[in-house]
Each structure stands twice: as structure tokens, then as C-alpha cells.
Amino acid sequence: MLHEKLGGLYEEVARRNAGETEFHQSVYEVLTSLGPVVDKHPEYVDSEVIRRLCEPERQIIFRVPWVDDNGTVQINRGFRVEFNSALGPFKGGLRFHPSVYLGIVKFLGFEQIFKNSLTGMPIGGAKGGADFDPKGRSDDEVMRFCQSFMTELYRHLGEYTDVPAGDIGVGMREIGYLFGQYKRITNRYESGVLTGKGTTWGGSLVRTEATGYGTVYFVNEILKSHNDSFEGKRAVVSGSGNVAIYAVEKVQELGGAVIACSDSNGYVVDEKGIDVDLLKEVKEVRRGRIADYAEMRGGAASFVADRNVWEVPCDIALPCATQNEINGDEARSLITNGCRIVAEGANMPCSPTAIKQFADAGVTFAPGKAANAGGVATSALEMQQNASRDSWTFAETEQRLEQIMHRIHNRCLSTADEYGQPGNYVAGANIAGFIRVADAMLALGVV
Ligand code: GLU
User: What quaternary arrangement does the UniProt entry report (predicted)?
Assistant: First the structure.
């Protein structure tokens, strides 16, 4: 239920952004947490800070024409939603996936404002991407697409203006092509304009691992707060992209076993624990499918086609694939099978129904804007290194990531306590993220 002072605003957002259901969902989720804040601080409503937050500062939509390997002209649609720059330059990833449309970019950009705020670092919120499907495309096609995309986007970017990075479908290869084109057009080696770069050309160590590692560090903080650890725990991870791979690696480093992971064709179960080197070989080197993993692992693992990984019993669930992958049915099966902790490595993988079921069943739920903030936080560390023309060791960077996750965890818990909802990570993350950005907006005036 929304606070009486916020219901009208939600109606307005839904009406003015018709059909953008994922965006509505992400706004609703934040607004549901803000009731006690509005009671304590009516100035946030009186100054229209919340209404301003729901309206992006700038939305860019553009044509991306390119020529495929057969000589056929292809047209995609590109987006960049620069949502809020009260805390620093716009910051957030680019997603290349056929499902991308304005509603998805806006939900991701809105989430990013609060996530970035929670990190405590000087970064605003944004997101972008295109409805381009990299699956099955050659390297050359991906390069030509990235060059065309950047030929429009470059004019909106800058290390003090807007700093994109990766997301689904955009990794180091794509960031390389984008950076190459930016450098060519502007004639500037402006390292701080993109993050997630290769380590030989301005990237930070640990950026590749950061989202997955950070999510697991967050869960480790939850476990520690209950005098518990990963030792002997069974975890299930959905997805097998960048976030999933490094979540698997860190769970196993900390003594747990990840017994299943997935892709859009199905899932693999490996009772001895996923062989992370083989997973990297299949997904990062060969760009293959998760079914190939089972085949290459011989009898040790089995592939289950077209079914949902959440039917595999586990203690800890880490959804690291995409939005709304856990709905009521999946949540019910996790709860019935005894799952105790769910932490979002992806953005908004759990639907509102699922989150409510976890709360009712006493399952600890860590929302993405807190649990997966390690990725963007390490992007901010990359920006720091670029600004000082320095590069830090793996160990030093990872230590900073771990400290950041520790601080985010404690900030969520102390804020939840302060607002009378002990142990509620959703309330803690939304309120703490909101207050930092809202106070900055009040200080900067009506702009
Ligand atoms: N796409 C990532 C996220 O969802 C990372 C963004 C970034 O590093 O700028 O937070």
C-alpha cells in the first residue's frame, strides 16, 4: 500500500509513461518504502523532490543503422535515459538485447539512481542500450553495430557528463569497440568516459568480477550477522553470464557449493559443485550454451532443458539472469524446498508477488540495488583510477569492493532500524538510497 501522499504520484507516473510496465513496477517498489520517510520529512513532498525523481532529466532515442555480413542494412533503436545527476555524472550500463524498449531502460535507470546513491560514491543514475541481439552475430557485425551506436551517443557523453558501462549483451569486447569509436570521433583518449574497459587500456582489475563477487560479499554479510557462514551451504545461481560466473566463483571460494546455474535454454545440475573454469571456457571463450557445459563435464553434470532452475532445492538463491525471473510459482517452490536467503545479482529479478511471499515466509531478501551494487561501485573505482592516471592491484581493488559491500549492508540495516522495520533490506536500501539523493537535490535547488 502506498502512503496517501504518494498514491497520486504513482497514478501520474503510470499515466504519463503508458505501457512501460517495468518502469511502473520499479517506481512502485521504491514508493512503497517511502511512507515513513514522508511522515518524518514532509519537505520531500512539499519540494516535489519525489515527483522530480520520477521524471528523467533527459531521454535520448536514436536510429542505429548498420550493415550485416550479407550486405543487408539493419536498423535498430538506441536509447540513453539520463535519469538523475544530483550526486555526480550520469552513470549506468548499456544493455543490448531484443527485449530492450523505453520501459526497460527507464526501470533500469530509475533503479540505478538509488543503487548508485547507496554506494556512497559520486555517481548519478542512467541506463541505455538497444534492441540489438548480439546472439549469433559475428565479431565484425558487433563492431559495426557498436560504431554506429557510438556515432550518435558520443555527443551526449563525457567523463563529467555521462559514463556508460556494460550490462546484458555488453561486455569488454563491446566496450572496446565503443571506446575506439568515441576516441576516433572526439580525438581524445578520455579513459573516464566508459567503464568496464580492458585492463591494458584503462580498465580496472576486479571490474569483470565485481557484480558477482559483490553480491556474494553481501550475502556473506547477511550470514555473518546471523553468526553463520557459507560453509556447507547449497546455492543455486540463475544465468551464466558475467554476474553469474563470478557469483559461482566467490560462493565456492567462501566454502559453499553452487549446484546449479542456467541460461535461456534450461539449467545444469552439478552435485559436486559447478566447475567454474569449465563454465568460463564454455561461456567466455566459446560463447557457447549451458548445455555444452553438461556435455563437456561428462557424467558429473546433467542438463535439464526448458525448465526453471528454481525447482532445484537450495539454501541460498542468487538470481543473476534478468528482470522478473522469479514470480509467485518460483518463489513458492524455493520456500517449500527450504531456501533461507535470496539475493538479487540481476536487476529486479524478483516480482512484487515473489518478494511478498519471501517476507511472509521469513526468507531474507536482499534487493538488487543493494546486493548487486558492487559492479557500479567498482566502475566508480575505475573512474578514480582514470582520473589519477593510476592503476591499483587486484588485491587492493577487491579489498575496497569488500569494504563497500560491508558499508552498504550496514547502511541498509541501520536505516531499516531507524525507520522501524528491522531486518527489512528492501526498506533499508530504498530509504537510504533515496535520502542521499533527495538531500543533494534539495541543496541544488529547483533544476
Ligand atoms: N549495469 C551494471 C548495473 O546494473 C553496471 C553499471 C556500471 O558499471 O555503470 O549496475
Answer: Homohexamer.
